[in-house]
Here is the input.
Amino acid sequence: MLLTGTRVLEWAEGLSAPFASRLLGDLGAEVLKIEAPGGDPLRQRAPFWPGESGADASALFGYVNAGKASEVVDTGSAAGRARLEALLDQADILIESQPPEVVDVAALQARHPRLTVLSLTPFGRSGPLSGAPATDFTLQHRAGFAWAMARPVDDPQARGPLGGADHEGPLAVGVTGALAAMWGLLVAQAGGPPPAIDLASHDFYAHIAFEGLADWLTGERRFSRVRVKKEGTEAAGGLTWILPCRTGWIMVSPREQHQWDRWTALLGDPAWARDVELCSTRVHRRRNFFELQTLMAEWTRQFAPEDVAARTQAVQVACFPVSTPGELLANAQLLHRGLFDRLVSPGGQSVPVPGLPFKAVTTGHGPLERERTRRGPSLGGAP
Amino acid sequence: MSAERGQLVLAGLRVVDFSWIIAGPMTTKMLGAMGAEVIKIESTTRAEHAARGGSYPLLNNNKHSCTIDFTKPAGQELLHRLVAISDVVVENFSARVLAKYRLGYEELRKIRPDLLYVSASGVGRTGPQKDWLAYGTLLQAYSGRAGLIGPPNLKLEAMGILPVWTDPVTAMWETMAILAAIHHRRRTGDGAYVDMSMLEGTVTLLPEALLRHSLGSERAGPGGNEDGESAPGGCFRCAGEDDWIAVAVRSDAEWQGLWTAMERPDLAAAYGSAAARRTAKAELDSVLGGWLAGRHAEAAETTLLACGVPAARSRNFAGVIGDEQLAARGMFPHLADDKRTFALPWRDATGWRGRAETAPALGGSNAYVFGDLLGLSEDEIAALTAEGVIG
Here is the structure.
């Protein structure tokens, strides 16, 4: 395991910071999560295991915290502070998401000079808004991500900017937290002074808005959300189509000329495909995006999405179904690669949940395990 | 050890970078920001390398560029010599290109046994779909995230197909995996092969939808402007043109802040618990929406933040680059040519957030790579250039 021997102490709640320490655990680190009496508020968050109740009943909590141990530490009491200090002495890295008035990172590192600290907070530990109220949802709107998610649209007054799917925002911040923690562990491994890492969720969302920065650097200032029929403001750049199937949908992107030629051959070389004004070049295909969509859909409507994707990929054109959650859990590619772990509840129920999104094998210490059996920590107990 | 040297923790590590488009270049940009010497392998014969427009200058900071035609056996020989004195290979080729041009892991580990070789591909290097052609936009649909943001529609509106998501998320996963493999290598001497799937990197972040499906829940969970926990909460229309604000009220304290800001103490008692507010969400959203409709988002944001309510005007990028918080934290540093780029997503307590050097000119480091590193004479370089191996 890549991080065997690394000890992580987590003093954090919610999604992002706990996911960061969980990922270090997935890579082989030993993770202890300390929780206030009553536990991480995520323990109260649905979905719950059917028929189970109490502090260990949230399946979402189990996913985000799988593989950790938990200890209840009341950091408001003298005994709790003493216990925290003892645990910090044994840790290589502290991952925390506490309010700034609760944790003085500089003082803490002065007492524990070999401790790396990752602080993962909404606005970060510096700047005029440090400590201001925010959630991942409001930060996605603040940092331009939500604006770009609903752009272009026909009627911006009716269709507002949009947040992301599921918990992808805060969990992606957690991945970035694990990355930043790895940087800190490398600094310490090389004998440097262990850093105090300051990761803001807000900074992450701004970081991934680089397409906006690219446009801004070429002089764009309005960033209108109104759909205009010109290059680049059509749906997905104008060369990627969504098409209805017998049931469900596919997306297809025959963007190069040779791909377009193979795609129209697959469609049976219909007469419209030879119409020069309609579709002879990328410029024409962009301009006639919606007309072409109607024509192409005549073919895709005959088949199921997975059939359209397989036939289209067979002629080397990019095409995939628009998946539903149930389809993902049955997806042949994901199952073949062993993406899914089994998450087991305190009552013995189990469901498939995603594991790490990469396979890794080392030359001397074997592969990272896939298809594991995982449990969330019971409050104050072992995983 | 100076502070900066301690932070450039990958100094002395050489990365051969075959990647292109977004995910791989973002990864190697971060490795360069942490001190690695990144050598980008490009070609004057490929239009996408020559163009260098769009996001290229933002995704390729902290790199050298050299030009090699690896379709020629002599180009492959040069690359094998370069790999022999390098530590990491990053690539996102199609599976066919890898085998055809002798650039796969099995080939290169014979040359450099402790090599860290990192592939990032659409659906991974194994499995029935490993040869399927993929783009980030399509993977955003295939991963299921698009359908969780908004219902599929012919205009692709409000489904999250734009902006990029799968690519930058892949870069975070990929860079994390590389750093973990480096940590392990420095401890054990092991090389490693990493096979990253962009599809899996996206699906892994959607646990609630998958859990709800397995547990028989009727709802899909949060997505779009329903965050699954706020009441009232969402994205509300304000008085200006295309003027919107996001508000999230979760706790009793935030609720008190909201009715204080709205000067509506009459609402306090009737909705005193989070459960009561959740039940009455539609009604409370309507009240809040009415209050916001007559206000400009910028002013409402100031009022709500002052009252302790999470709120943000929905900004476009012009608002993002002008954001005082991001400016204070050095998110978009100036380069030597006075253009801007984006820095590492984190900083440390000293304010350090990585090197930020201008993206390289095509083949700008040919003399360094072929002369200094590989020890070719000027005559040899000229001959290889004439044969089109370099170039």
